[in-house]
Here is the input.
Amino acid sequence: MNQTLLIELLTEELPPKALAKLGAAFASGIVNGLKSRDFLEEDSAATVHATPRRLAVSITKVRATSPDKSIREKVLPVSVALDKDGNPSAPLAKKLAALGFPDLTVADLERAQDGKAESFFYTYTAPGSQLLAGAQAALEESVAKLPIPKVMSYQRPDGSTVQFVRPAHSLIALHGADVLPLTLLGLTASNVTEGHRFLTAPGARNVTVANADAYAAVLAEQGKVVPGVEARKEKIRASLLEKAGADQVLMPESLLDEVTALVEWPVVYECRFEEEFLAVPQECLILTMQTNQKYFALTDAAGKLRSRFLIVSNIETGTPDAIIGGNERVVRPRLSDAKFFFEQDKKKTLESRLPLLKNVVYHNKLGTQAERSERVTALAGAIAGKLGADVALTERAARLSKADLLTDMVGEFPELQGIMGTYYARHDGEHEDVALAASEHYQPRFAGDALPATATGTAVALADKLETLVGIWAIGLAPTGDKDPFALRRHALGVLRMLIEKRLPLSISGLLADAARQFASVAGFKDPTADVAAFMLDRLRGILRERGFTPNEIEAVVAQNPDRLDDIVQRLEAVQAFAALPESASLAGANKRITNILKKNEEALAQTGGAGINAALLQDAAEKSLHAAIVRVQPEVDAAFAKGDFAGTLKTLAQLRDDVDAFFNDVMVMAEDVALRNNRLALLSSLHGMMNRVADISKLAA
Here is the structure.
């Protein structure tokens, strides 16, 4: 009979940061174990339950007995099973006995081809197994594979020693209303668990689950526990929004996940702190509340921090004054520390801190932060000059960009580097672009993050990332596999996004060369720019895939090793439009053929010295027609390309399809006459150059 299966393991408090993974792994391990043993239906559904004190899973439509199976067992090759006279051999009798079929005869076996030889087979029906055995095996397999951060050993009441992430107290295993007597960690399953540690009376803490389907409801009603991870998380989210009223709640998913793993019965309370703390940059206050206290900050509709905040408690009470007061007392010293750091930091200008960068090692092979700052400053100035930005302002911004690393606030909260630089630069009276660049030069910090808004910030951001890429790569610390300790992939993606999305008219090779020049005084520096450029092109493919372009479309553009990316999206959109034309497949195929012909005859073409096409040597009608078409279409292609109309450039090529097809049908390119052959190669070379101005359309050929 198909019924819901519930398995719950009750423990001491589990590590909150690992709870989500533990819960998911516990559930998936059991589900996979039962599925592999054929106890689940196609539409069986699993629900993950995980709280600070329990791992559980409920699975619908679980069979009490797995289906009977028809098994075709290979017995022995015929040559072994029969002796030279064709009678059953001793090995056959031994094999049948080992399989549990000692009474079978040769007549009961199937004789069939088995590769190049014949073998005997026996088909029989194996009865299904009971759920108890299948669930026991699935549970043991699941627990053995749990991603446990650290195993602990503890002693059971009976004196036995077991190992698990935390001491385990009880086990539930229910198939419908029936208890499955599974065993694990010295426990035997029952239908009894414990409710909330504080919200249930000591004598009424045990909760009996009469039926697997009633687990979540009974635990919530009698035990004051919301067992479902997602259900608990959504209850917290809804309660936070309700308590916030007209204010906005800052609730990053990572904080929600962590708080969800800390409570079994979430209740949201409102707390407050003194208004005077709002004079401190709100990023500092928000970070200390979220990181140190797991509190949820509130802002008004304009994003300005409020002096009230929300906490998620594991206790529900009608008189929460003690809980609220306790949390307000706890947060006050944290906010006081932030205020103290801010006031102390403002007593010294960012510029006055610069000499201290000489005492901070950036990397033992690349020098100090002061030396790095000089490299970034020079590179940022060079980039600003190419962008037409204020060079002096950019160099000032770059020089001050790392000064906030030496402040007390950033020392306490490294996540605030750059953000505090902006506040302190404004306090020092620096130009607004210099202040903004302190934080903007870290952008984009992650996928989807905003790009620098100012030209100054953009130049410094490019310089900072390029200096890191070239410097770290040069000392042999390029990313390998999953290892990328210096986040070079992120830096490369940041550079590419700025070049593409801001349509910056900058050469990648030029930027890398400028970056490499800054390391001229570094001993043993080996220029890695070729490798870094290839690395960036690989990252470029990923960016373009995320924008929805196909691999063939991307290769059509990237295969040309573009050195500027300000128009790459427009080129790809043009390739996309060209690929939709009915003529595109034929032209792409022809272009691929031309590419191969020219590649094989590079030496012959080189010997002609680029003499071009001699119209007098054109003999066949098809080659004359193709030449005339090229002459006719070339001005249109040039005009469209000059305007940046890449789609128009490629669409113009559609006119050539019939002439190109006729040429390859009627003309022998590799003629015996050398002059004639070279002239035809020159014709194809001219066509090839015109066809591939926007992209290598041969890459579109299947």
